Amino acid sequence: MPDKITVAGVSVDTRHWIGGERVASAGTFADHSPIDGSALGEIARGGPAEAEAAVAAARDAFPEWATTPRSERARLLHAIADGVEKRIEELAIVETTDNGALLRSHRRGVMPRVAHNFRFFADWLLSLDHEDFETRGHTNHVSWDPAGPCVLITPWNAPLMLATWKVAPALAAGNTVVLKPAEWSPLTASLLADIAAEAGLPAGVLNVVQGYGSEIGDALTSHPDVRRISFTGSVPTAKRIAESAAAQLTPLSLELGGKSPLLVFADADLELAVDLAVEQYDNAGQVCLAGTRLLVEETVAEEFTRRFVEKATALEQGDPRDETTDIGPNIHPRQLEKIDGFVRRAVAAGARTVIGGHRKDGQYYAPTLLTDVAQDSEIVQEEVFGPVLTLQTFAGEDEAVRLANDTRFGLAATVVTGDRDRAERVTARLVAGTVWVNCFFVRDLQAPFGGSRQSGVGREGGTWSFDFYCDLKNTVTAPKGWNQDHG
To answer: What residues act catalytically?
Structure first.
């Protein structure tokens, strides 16, 4: 197996990054581009041995990194951000080739956000502090102590952005990291290792190991030297991770996707509502936050549907490297089969296809809208993670909220209304970690992010990230007992 492959003119190392060195494995797995199914190369396939080596490297590097001054940790994070910005074009084309998301989005939004992840948490670290407070004359001082080696397991739909959303605060907090990227899109994590090394990050502080699911994952998540685990992905995988981590009582942060509602009230700006609804097809529907359940007040449902169909059918689907493309491919043949299965079963159960409902050539699935769906049906209750939306109607606020909350998930919700009081009433009753009103996907890194119910455990973002990636300590000091003659 060659140590490096060339992807769209960019050299990418296929080996693990452990302890500041490239490490090969006896086995490999094939990585293919969803754009045309072409083979990109063979990737080192790690297992328990690589997991052990990576955790050991992180453990050995931890004491020095944990005691590195905040200012120096922040400087190195900014240096990594500098490296990302210098390689935005390379990172963008590699990630588009590897996971099929739009190249224009990677260039203009995603990769700049990757750099921002590092800069934000570097700056937040320097401002992180609690004011001391008094208890009966005693002084309380709260501090954030680095926890130790962290295992970060990231998904394939936004590989580098979601990886660095975890890596940046973990490193800023003084922890060392073992990053395990998704096997369907591993390449930009390898490039991140190069960038971090070039920035001067000490060996062992960031480690990247590749592999298939439980082959390497169980060894990482059950390891007694791991102090934190952060995972973004599916509920079944999260349950397995939780079982694995339970033996060590390792704290978990889990972001597990959802089945989010998008509520459109009759007083809404319908043009805005339609634009927001069509936006849910972004990244071929492979967005955990997507409002895939369109809930529309019945008095405007017909007009909303007409406008939606007109706009959605005008979307350009094709090669994500083309500037005019709006929707690219789905990530993997297995995912495409899963999407198609959901739609076929829904139609068999009585759903009506308004648009789409079928595969196209290659790994492309037509943007789909289904109506006449029952609230308790699979298509309404389960996450499809593809370009498939459902449309249901409601008669008033109570029914809208009931339908919106009637799943096992609670990641996000979008409310479109022209009535500020209604917006406040409805959002107060929705079960969701994030609610957008008359907008979608506006994310500020200082805000808490996470889900309710089976959409996740815990929150990250701003101080919440440091609360998770640190052991919070309260030091209580008495006003008496000092040797006044000392010193």
So the answer is: 255, 288
